[in-house]
Amino acid sequence: MLNFLAQVGHESGGLFYTEELASGSAYEGRADLGNTQKGDGVKFKGRGLIQITGRANYKAVSLALGTDFVTNPTLLGGKNVTKCNAAQLKNAAESAGWFWNTRNLNALADQIDITKSIDTGNNLVAFKKITKAINGGYNGLPDRLNRYKAGLSYFL
């Protein structure tokens, strides 16, 4: 749970943003995300608390949650929590859980020993694997680690 909250906390700017701040144009033409049609990058930019990105992920989460996010991408989130309706907030949260579970990230989180430092050794290796699975890289790693550390006292 702690790893999930640290990662989602970073991705959503402290559970505030339900839509990526960038335009999404950087995802245009990214076949690895299923963005094969003109305009897919912007249409399927990161949304939800874990920032679901790309036509392929929108299609998969649509099937899993029973809502057509491909036709209606903004059902996954609308800028920030003050601009979302109840359905968008629900979908933003559920999509984060879906993403975490479909990537089997609990298995990586279970490798982390909460009695040891997250900053070194196997703990850091596992944490970085989780970050890469979510982000595709290590964007925001220091913030993600700080969020983990801040929440640690609640889990010990």
TrEMBL record:
Name all Glycoside hydrolase family 19 catalytic domain ranges: 7-138
Q: Specify the protein name.
A: Glycoside hydrolase family 19 catalytic domain-containing protein
Question: Which PANTHER family has this protein been placed in?
Answer: FAMILY PROTEIN, PUTATIVE-RELATED, GLYCOSYL HYDROLASE FAMILY 19 DOMAIN-CONTAINING PROTEIN HI_1415
Domain of life (superkingdom): Bacteria
**InterPro entries, sorted:** Cell_Wall_Dynamics_Protein, Glyco_hydro_19_cat, Lysozyme-like_dom_sf
* Chain segments annotated as coiled-coil in the UniProt record: none
Pfam families for this protein: Glyco_hydro_19
TM region positions: none
